[in-house]
């Protein structure tokens, strides 16, 4: 068991295939570009050797990497030796390992391979606290996962939650997927993509003229309607497809040894393990679109779940995708091993009315910025913009006020059992339930405006999740009393009654 | 669970956070002031020097230099005094407690049992004034407590004291 192992040799084939894909994607437009200027034969003569050289280089580099990479699991540590020019010898103490995540893209899956990432719960920078094995066979990955995460229970634990399946995907949840900002974004992106592809083939002008010709026959409103319609359809299809890719075959399990495991993915499969000892709470997130249709998702608030890379997105902390609110509450309760989710059982207390005024003023100020810019432009450049200015003022002001009032209504804080619950946000309403014993410090922050209104922003710092969760614009005296009730003896010794100053 | 730990008669008097006991070293004012002086003075000097050589643009360079100097004046003269009044710190047997900021006043508390590392930093300016900054980090990515502008010997003592206290406290501080 303590002998050195190599990664799977087929990684070279996968890398070569990936490079071939890149070569085709980049070589095709390049070849057509060159061929347009000269002749197809010359284009082939240039593009094909370059592409082949690229593929060969990638394969050779990966072969060398494969030869130089060794890992082993000893009784105490996991060790990994890598590096071609600079040899790196890294090791993690096994008792500090908190997660073993498996990811397999389509190509890897064809070969039965999996990328493994072994992580500790440290808040270390990217790569510091984790070892990556790219790739090993599926069987080896499962063996590693079980070996590294399954440890004897830390002691006699009474009333342990039962193991087993906590949630599975209901395909009807796909209806919530288009209710996000992704839909309009994808809708706009598709027009850009069409023009980009057209440009590769030197057809951009032609496509634009053709589109204008088609639209010219329609009345203006109908033309706009057609464009928006196309964008919407693409956006809805795209965001639904993305949801299916991400969440196909989603399962949330509680495994022996106190581990939560999320498995999901249609083309790229992912397996994310989360040690329950790291869990400090959950956040029930309801973006505006989801809230309108009664949906919510559940995120874990756990230590050491930092976003590893920018492109990895944050969703490996998501325990449940957008699902009906009742399902979200049920899963939140199961994950926390509580009879009822704290986000549901808590009686949230509203914040002082002064907080509403602040929100309305912010919202109106934010809405005033584009209007003022348009006004200035209207006076200096073109009077048409003056009309755009007042129309946007009429549209933006009520939207701003509505969002501000909603933001105020969503403010709330409360205690239930061992949890502190805080809710805020209009566009993205988040209700976080944080274990009170997971709170490791308080920060109170007060701007000079808040001071005048007797408000402050109370922030609970924690080792988990974002590192800090804020209760915005709580009444000063109430807030401090609340902080002291929630976690005694942090702010307590430093509190005083205002009159004996 | 009771809403507040106080009796009803006390509840009429609002609660607030008392200022921490200790002020920073008075030299901190000079340290901040020098920092701002360098920040605003350097572009000012550059602009003035350019004004000596680029005669056609002289007027505008002088105006720009004046504007930078005017903008810098409150930072050099007033802000360090305000900061000195507001910045306070206190270390009890159980916690580190600080107050910072002026427009956004901030009170931070980190309990001893959750402290992970205690560091001092001394930039070149701080070394010149014999000052040091103590940073106390907890397991939270956002929970660090910073005390700037301490006498450097006092800072070293504090670090020693904090390290001893936190080592005596069991647990992994998360």
TrEMBL record, chain A:
Domain YdbS-like PH: residue ranges: 66-146, 408-484
InterPro entries, per database record: UCP026631, YdbS-like_PH
Matches recorded under PANTHER family: UPF0699 TRANSMEMBRANE PROTEIN YDBS, UPF0699 TRANSMEMBRANE PROTEIN YDBT
This protein's name: YdbS-like PH domain-containing protein
């Amino acid at each position: 068991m303590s002998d050195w192992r190599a990664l799977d040799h087929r990684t070279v084939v996968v890398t070569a295939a990936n490079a071939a894909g890149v070569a085709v994607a980049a070589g095709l437009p390049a070849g057509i570009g060159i061929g347009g200027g000269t002749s197809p034969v010359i284009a082939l003569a240039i593009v094909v050797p370059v592409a082949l050289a690229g593929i060969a280089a990638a394969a050779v580099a990966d072969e060398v990497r494969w030869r130089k990479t060794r890992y082993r699991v000893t009784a105490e540590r996991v060790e990994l030796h890598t590096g071609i020019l600079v040899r790196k010898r890294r090791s993690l103490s096994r008792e500090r390992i908190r997660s073993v995540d498996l990811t397999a893209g389509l190509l890897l899956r064809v070969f039965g391979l999996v990328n493994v990432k072994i992580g500790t719960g440290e808040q270390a920078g990217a790569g510091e606290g984790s070892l990556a094995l790219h790739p090993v066979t599926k069987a080896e990955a499962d063996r590693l996962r079980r070996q590294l995460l399954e440890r004897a229970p830390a002691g006699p634990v009474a009333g342990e939650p039962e193991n087993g399946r906590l949630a599975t995907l209901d395909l009807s949840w796909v209806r919530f997927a288009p209710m996000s900002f992704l839909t309009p974004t994808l809708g706009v992106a598709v027009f850009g993509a069409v023009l980009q592809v057209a440009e590769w083939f030197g057809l951009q002008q032609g496509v634009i003229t053709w589109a204008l010709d088609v639209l010219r026959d329609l009345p203006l409103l109908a033309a706009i309607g057609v464009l928006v319609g196309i964008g919407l359809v693409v956006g809805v299809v795209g965001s639904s497809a993305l949801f299916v890719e991400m969440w196909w075959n989603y399962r949330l399990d509680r495994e022996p040894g106190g581990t939560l495991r999320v498995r999901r993915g249609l083309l790229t499969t992912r397996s994310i393990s989360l040690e329950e000892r790291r869990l400090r709470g959950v956040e029930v997130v309801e973006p505006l679109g989801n809230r309108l249709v009664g949906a919510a998702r559940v995120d874990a608030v756990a230590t050491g779940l930092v976003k590893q890379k920018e492109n990895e997105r944050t969703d490996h902390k998501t325990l449940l995708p957008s699902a009906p609110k009742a399902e979200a509450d049920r899963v939140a309760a199961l994950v926390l091993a509580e009879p009822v989710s704290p986000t549901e059982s808590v009686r949230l207390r509203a914040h002082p009315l002064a907080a509403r005024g602040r929100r309305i003023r912010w919202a109106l100020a934010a809405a005033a910025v584009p209007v003022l810019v348009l006004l200035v432009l209207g006076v200096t450049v073109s009077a048409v913009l003056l009309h755009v200015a007042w129309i946007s003022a009429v549209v933006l002001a009520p939207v701003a006020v509505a969002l501000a009032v909603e933001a105020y209504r969503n403010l709330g804080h409360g205690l239930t059992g061992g949890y502190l619950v805080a809710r805020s946000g209009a566009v993205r309403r988040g209700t976080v339930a944080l274990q009170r014993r997971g709170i490791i410090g308080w920060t109170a922050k007060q701007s000079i405006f808040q001071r005048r209104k007797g408000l402050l922003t109370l922030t609970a710092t924690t080792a988990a999740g974002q590192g800090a969760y804020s209760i915005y614009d709580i009444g000063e005296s109430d807030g401090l009393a609340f902080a002291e009730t929630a976690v005694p003896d942090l702010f307590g010794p430093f509190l005083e009654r205002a009159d004996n100053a | 669970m009771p809403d507040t730990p106080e009796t009803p008669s006390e509840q009429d008097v609002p609660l607030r956070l008392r200022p921490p006991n200790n002020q920073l070293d008075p030299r901190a004012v000079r340290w901040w002031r020098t920092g701002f002086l360098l920040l605003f003075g350097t572009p000012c000097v550059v602009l003035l020097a350019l004004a000596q050589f680029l005669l056609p643009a002289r007027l505008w360079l002088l105006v720009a230099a004046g504007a930078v100097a005017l903008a810098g004046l409150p930072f050099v003269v007033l802000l360090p005094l305000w900061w000195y009044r507001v910045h306070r710190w206190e270390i009890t047997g159980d916690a580190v407690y600080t107050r910072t900021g002026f427009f956004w006043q901030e009170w931070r508390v980190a309990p001893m049992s959750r402290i992970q590392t205690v560091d001092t930093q001394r930039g070149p300016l701080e070394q010149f004034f014999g000052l040091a900054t103590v940073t106390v980090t907890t397991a939270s990515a956002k929970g660090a407590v910073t005390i700037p502008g301490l006498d450097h010997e006092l800072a070293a003592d504090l670090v020693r004291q904090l390290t001893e206290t936190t080592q005596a406290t069991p647990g992994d501080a998360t």
